[in-house]
Amino acid sequence: MVVLLAVISSAALLWCASRGYTLYYGDAEAHLNIARRVLDSRTPGAEQLGTVWLPLPHLLMLPFVAREKWWRSGIGGAIPSAVGFVAAGAFLFAAARRAYTSAAAGLVAALLFALNPNMLYLQSTPMNEAIFAAALAALLWSTVWFRDSQSGWAVLVAAAASNAASLTRYEGWFLIPFVTLYLFITARRKSYAFVFAVLAGLGPLAWLAHNQYYYSNALEFYDGDFSAQAIYARQLAAGAARYPGDHNWSQAIHYYFAAVTLTQGWALVILGGLGAAAALLKRVWWPLLLLALPPAFYVWSIHSSGTPIFVPTLWPHSWYNTRYALAALPLAAFAGAAIVTMLPRKFYGVGAAVLVLAAIPPVYAGRPTCWNESAVNSLARRAWTGQAAAYLAAHYQPGDGIIYSFGDLTGVLREAGIPLREGLHQGNRPAWDAAVLRPDLFFREEWALAEAGDKIDDALKRTGPHGAQYQLKQRIMVEGAPVIEIYQRQLAQLR
Question: How big, in percent rounded to 5, are the helix, strand and coil portions of the chain?
């Protein structure tokens, strides 16, 4: 099973890389560069992990993004995703085989997951969906193993998987009390539930400690300047419309379900529903509950946390965060596999083939939803990134130094081949703070890369007659994107 999954994963990764799709997602670019700046920065180290995104995917990328060629191509960030994809399929196979006592059901669950084109695309990029799926599937397998064996080792594996989930995505935190309760109910030694709760809590506690130590606010990821909540509040203050589903349960469910049907197809949704009924008839309830928790978390987040999901079939008819619907893919795959077990055993093989062939081909009608989302939303960004990178590659000299705001602009440095340690950004405190607060005294970089209205743009206007003077060298204007400007110190003209 692992070999088959590895072949599928490698083929998809190489196909996407050969066509330049690896970094279409803006978040993929950001994840890649966060990992790189932990090693390649003026102030390297754990602080560069930031606050909002959890650290495990970035830590897994470190050995790969250390190679400049792999960083610049994006492959270094995609490798951990691909490994996570293989692990997710393998654990899903093992969990379904044990829960349904059928290798055929295990095979169906793994293939319904692994052959989904949206998951195949995401596992070929530096995104974290496949890594979280691996942690979730490992948690499922270990808890089913514990139910049968009452082994303390199963509890330790479950705790490790829970920590991996909790350090990858926040829905991992949401799982902990439910798994603890399940272990308490099923364990003959109730202390196992306590052991799991203590060990599983280490992941969230570590992230709270990281935020407290580096940013003096344990909840910086939740209510800090770069949190989803703060960004949404600023949008509302600027007069933007509220997200669909904000404090509206029916709308939240409607939008999430619409995204599920787009990313997984109606065939798998229907088979998953029928399979769930079959699984419940066989009293296989815990896997369904556990795998339903991440989708429930997203519906809750749409309702209560300012998390948007936009789909082209519903207002405002755009693409944004449709990939969150893939949190339901392990549930649909696992549930759909139960249908095999309703057949006579001699038809398990044929039934497995029919199920996979019925569910998978319809999703391949047209380009994958997540690819469309990444391509549409990155069209302008890719255009200005390429133009800015081409200019800097032709004019920037090693050691010049460049100041910019970390985010989308970091892709310009990556594409231009400028090491991140030559850039000054908001992760490089206190030098960054000094530069943006008193640019007349502390703006010293040879180059400045600004986006209209950002802190660099503002600081450049405040350098004053006695500070370093910068000359606009290139202005890049792309429809649907902010104006990008490249400045160089005027003193450079005297060389």
Answer: 70, 5, 25
